[in-house]
Design goal:
The protein is 39% helix and 22% strand. The chain has 131 residues and is α/β, with parallel strands linked by helices. The longest helix is centred in the N-terminal third of the chain and has 13 residues, at 25-37.
Length: 131
Amino acid sequence: MGLKSSPPLTDELAGARILVAEDEILIALDIRSMLIDAGAEVLGPATTLAAAKTIAQTASLTGAMLDVRLGRETSEAIAVTLSERNIPFVFYTGEALPAHIQARWPNCIVVAKPASQSVVVAAIACLIHAK
């Protein structure tokens, strides 16, 4: 007997295709669940810069949630790729946003770790509905 997927708890993000780039797998899976529960389709989680960049370059996306640090690297290259493709994104971080990243994307939404499902979903909803 296979597992049945549950219907979304809300449809706030229905139809949205969201990249999740997060190197801490438990956090990544938590974010993934939050977004799926709001009706989004999640691509990833991508736990490395290379994996996230591949998705950012090739997938049809509505938006993205990027951990600022992916291992020893930053997600800046992913943000550049997404910007070039006019795909909005949110930075998700447990630390202050590096000054050069903040200067490059001064109006980007930043969600502080840890965040509740309502905060995560609201940030992504704001992002994609403003597009």
